[in-house]
Amino acid sequence: MKHKIFGAAVLLGLTVLPQSLLSQRLNPADILHPAADSWPSYHGDYSGRRHSPLTQVTPQNVSNLSLAWAFQTNQTAQIKSSPLLVDGVLYFTVPENVWAVDARSGHQIWHYTSPPTPGDHIGNRGVGMYREWLYFMLPDGQLVCLNARNGSVRWKVQIADASKGYWTTMAPIVIRNHVIVGVSGDLDNLTGYLRSVDPETGQTQWQWNATPPSGTPNSTTGGMTWMPGTYDPDLNLLYWGTGNPTPVLNGAVRPGDDLYTCSIVALNPDTGKLAWAFSVSPHDTHDWDAVETPVLVDGIFHGEPRKMLMQTSRNGYFFVLDRTNGKSLLTVPYGPVNWTLGVDKDGHPVPNPDKEPAPDGRLIAPDEGGLTNYRSPSFDPKTGLFIVDAHPSYGIYFAKPADGAYGWAGADYGLWGKGTIEAIDYRTGKIRWKHEVGEGGSGAGVLTTDSGLVFTGDAYGNLMVLDSSDGRTLWHAGTGAPMQSSPITYELDGRQYVLTSSGGVMFAWALPQSANERKLAATTAHPQSR
Amino acid sequence: MMKKFLVAVLFVTAGFIASQYRPTPAHAASAVSGVEAYANHCAICHGDNREGILPAFPPLQGITRQMTDQQITEIIHSGRGRMPGFPKLGQDELTALLQYLSTDDQPSAEAAKGSSSLATAGGLLFQQNCAFCHGRDAEGGESGPDLTQSRLVRRDRGGDRISEVIRNGRPEKKMPAFHFSEQEMHSLVAFIHEAEAKAVSKPGGRRGVEVADLQTGNVSAGRDYFNGEGRCSSCHSPSGDLAGIASRYEGLQLEEQMLYPREAKNHATVTLPSGEKVTGTVAYLDEFTIALRDSAGQYRSWSVNKVKYKLEARVNAHAELLGQYSDDDIHNLMAYLQTLR
Questions:
Q1: Which among A508, B28, B81, B150 is least buried, having the fewest CB atoms inside 10 angstroms?
Q2: B109-201 falls under which CATH superfamily?
Q3: How far, in Å, CA of A505 to CA of A501, rounded?
């Protein structure tokens, strides 16, 4: 019944679209085929490939890359968001703050700051956009709808209850007239869920729960949905990774696979109905959220054209699934992994019970941060390489009865790790090239372009540009702090920009404007200042 | 508008906390030097407000209801257990101290109350900024250590150590630096100490990793691994660099040091185009730049494509072993190292 009403609303929405075209800033349909001068959603498009067709910056001229502008947030919070770019305006965030910045000059248009909120301020991944409205999550579970023109608040709705232990960081994803939002919070035994709200009113359209309510016997809680997913418009399926089960390190009270935690799920975005689910870490006891970008790729796999979904998961395995039905095509580790007995016939890693946290400690690879984490990987269709910022690492995990069965329920400590940019051949899982980026690990996301470039960062704060074909360094620049976000790129006025952030600063890189353009600029600029 | 309101709230809060914090002993005149004597000799272990630092150091609130002046004097003069004696404490100072210890607990109770509201404010900041890594109750969480069992927290007096870590961060452990106002810092410190006290008083066994948990290994198997498969003896010696290691580190800290000593310094020799060689500890190294600190403490850096360098990173052997240990190897090695006192 409900679904029919939604269906009708969608149809209605579609029929009135042409009239409202004049006033809107971002037509939801434009996200399907983003223009070169836009980056209209977290991943740039619905596929999550973070790959751009732009080719102005090339391996040959990248050595001339230079700073076009930098924007200071003047915040101690690090930028962990991916900016959106719509109509020449960039929108990016740190917790409780949104900036609208001119993409040509880097000057501020407006700045929204919310009143102080409770909830974990660990980070914010950015905003979603629908027509002239922005959607922004506050740390305390509120979704704010802002006017993109001036940052004024249109409405706020409560998505999650911070007093129970939820917090929110993710960048909402807009599909037609659905604003899809997820939640965080694994310091308590809480149900993870994904919710779709109406972009005009903030009213809930549907909610999908990853786990049963807390207190359900022999079942798990958790499965937080704290990173934006991806979407296949042809199959009309929304793909989302879910977080770890709770209690986190104590698996005894939640026997079995703990569905749908640490899973990749496919949902109908109009109804929230589950189409399929694939358990990436059955019965996780190491905090390895499977929220890393579910990257959608159409290509040949073992001689057959396939609609695939790929994930380099935090648990150390690279997964290739058939995204029409969730069946496994490939499961292979992409770095040191010591917690499994192998992989079962359906492509699920089989956890080794001896590697569950124990009173005297268990040495585990990778560490709790995982073999990769929330920053995006990139798929380069030209080379067929899946390029990820990997983190080979070891940690030690403890749990004992005194730790109880609530929240963390144990303790774990990272011992050692390093950063390695890895290029994985999706057909075999073999690593084609590796580029070490430093002790401890980098934390930078990855962007690739059609011209054969990889943009990422190292552990020391260098922006790194590598050659996609072999991983060799082509250019670098010190930025003062390691990148904690994923780069984006766009072209404005015929000039390609690459945006990266470090600390609280957003940097825009571009090739120098040509001598002619500079000359023209010099003769026409600032006549009043003479 | 909002800002003005916030400022006003801050002022009121600060005033409230200040008034709560000031101890007002019942016998103010005679207790003044007693307060000083306490602060000079006792507070470092028994707490600023006689609240004690459990489990190591007992509270002294109401101590005169448990002991006579005679008994207290005896302990002060001779010490007890790990407490040192203060035989040279003058009669005047001793009298003042006894007087102070006998004062009503009201001031410290009031201070505790003040501290608790301070801790509540700190709790909010902690949830926003710290809980993700250190857990909501400061008992450890995602990647951050249990602060209630931290030696640094235990040794902290009124924020002297904790605030330093918060201000500077611990870049080598990936803890960022935070900028808090003095008042915010006070409140965070108060919250952490309150969490510590709560954790200690929790019934039913201690959470987290205790020294007793790490005793499952076999000493002789550990010794064999040290000298054999682990090849530890190719760099280390139980009578040399590791002599007394178990007295310097214990429990989890010893195990972490054993598995990967983070602060170990790497050495390198850089050969300049002139042929000059510079040797020192590696102060910085990325793909493009190397920097050394020489024996005189002088910092020098070079572009790596202008020089040649040879890195001596002996600590890498620890990282390589991580891929080879069984859990039993680790427990046995721990058992062996714990005999090196």
A1: B81
A2: Cytochrome c-like domain (1.10.760.10)
A3: 6
